[in-house]
Give the backbone structure.
Amino acid sequence: MIEKELSERINVEVDKLFDDQIRFTQKLTRFPSLRGQEHTAQDFLFDELTKRNYALDRWTVNVEDIKDHPGFSPVKVDYSNAINIVATHRPKTEIGRSLILNGHIDVVPEGPYEMWSRNPFDPAIEGDWMYGRGGADMKAGIVANIFAMDAIRNLGYQPAARVHIQSVVEEECTGNGALACLVRGYNAEAAIIPEPVDDKLVRGNVGVLWFKVSVKGLPVHVREAGSGQNAIEACFPIIKALRKLEEQWNAEKTNFKYYNDTEHPINFNVGNCNIWGLQYHPEITYNKMINLIIFRKKRLLEKGAFKDENEIDNHIKHIETENNKLDKVSRMRELENWLNYLNLE
């Protein structure tokens, strides 16, 4: 147990460093470390941790290294910039218990810029709050890990066992960044992850389960809409059934430790809806549409929009045929007729 006097001295030192800690957090928040763009923020951290004379390990997450682990989540994105950093403190004599201080550098998308009062990656302080995308979740946590160690070292002390300061990618979507650290051999007797969760200690979390439901409809001309099948409307009963399952799972929370007092631990979210049919607009030429299909051929196949390249080729031929039938004026007139039919202005 740490002595009360030493604990107070550490807290005083943390307070002394707090202004520097805030400035460091602002610098880190300025890096737009969205998924696939984390490398510049990681380079900044690598340089800062190098100045502190830690043993540094920096590597690109390799799917082949982690794909067979039970905790692995499948991905279809490029991992070229998915770079992890681990800074390790090793005492001369190891007599204490080892610790991992973990934080994730990736941030969620900034969303519509018109909903921000400022650049989301230009952090600003108003009163006791700092505003900026990723500042709380969770660059402030990463910086807190670093400055906690700074405070101890400034007093001339050091932890009596290994401490691994981890800055990882891929938390927002999969958790593969932290998993890559584990598979690489970074283990400890305890781990602290300073996520911004109501300023309290949390000992369990539900995690995330991603899944996709594909629903096929029957496309017809708008004049014959009643004879077709609307795939979007067909999703409604599926969503309703999933909501019911959500209620059932939340009713079982008393069977799990740490969740008795959590009002609604499991939350079902319809993240997005992708319609993979091709929708044509009068202002987009058919030739542009063909070029777009060719350019995105690989992606369309991966997403299941077409079953094979032959189907894509046949679709392109269909577009070329339609292009010969209708010029832009005719297509604009057709759209105008539809709008008039629907009494839209």
